[in-house]
Amino acid sequence: MWKSRWGGKPVGPLTGTSVKPSGIGRRWLGSLLLIVALGVLPACGSKKAVSVSEVKHRGKLVAGVKFDSKPFGFLDTDGQLKGYDIDLMRELSRRLLDKEKGVEFQQVLSSTRVIAINSGSVDAVAATMTITPERAKVVDFSIPYLTAHQAVVVPSDSPARHLKDLDGKTILFVLGTTSEGNIKKRLPGAKYTGFKSSTDAFSALKARRGDAMTTDDTIISGFLSDNCGFRVLDEKLSDEPYGLAFRKGGAETPDDLRVQVNQSLQAMEKDGTLARLKAKWVDGMLKGKPCKP
Q1: Does domain 148-240 have CATH number 3.40.190.10?
Q2: pLDDT digit string (tens) for 20-36?
Q3: Could you tell me the fold of the domain covering 18-145+243-286?
Q4: Residue 292 DSSP label
Q5: Are 171 and 191 in contact (CB under 8 A)?
């Protein structure tokens, strides 16, 4: 059994999946809070980007993923790590290393993704990370593999029917995401409370510690599949193209990990793999299948 260094409940071993704690110490938290609103951090550690040769020599691809963001990365009731980003990284491992289980998954949060990359703890991050110009200054991104949309969820009995109805109300968001900046621009008169994870934010909404929560519609759909009594406002705040993130410093050589990942993603788009992953993990939830009481 191990316990995430970011808190939370102990998690047991995951059969057939190599999982380790993030390896990022609590000492980062103080400085992190000063700059987390930007969602970026200055590069630290090695400036050298990871090569495919290095990954093959090591025998495994180390991926930073979320453990609490259904349907992208989450611990299921059977204790297994599952989701779109999990299957995506396993498929990339199969194509790059010729073995589907050649991935070691390490837990990251929205607020720790860039630290994990630039500290060298992971080779890549696949964790619902939106490609933005600000983030591209400190990490390198792959081409987009899926586009989500920022949305707002409220309790079913909320009087709010439109985004403007939440001005002056308390809105919950996740630290280190693009959601914070987007919602504050649209509702400057609202009150805001940030959380380390989307699970924490949604739990606060369930406890009525806020009037609404904002994050990507794909992530909200995961919560609504397991929780009745909530609805999503029709308005979407933004498009959120997800990309894999890598340490900066790549020479754009054929051996660069990002170069080969991009080639694999293009092939997966062409052969229908990305469409199948989206159909498996995202489409059913976005169509609003009945929640579980």
Answers
A1: yes
A2: 444 444 444 434 433 44
A3: D-Maltodextrin-Binding Protein; domain 2 (3.40.190)
A4: P
A5: yes
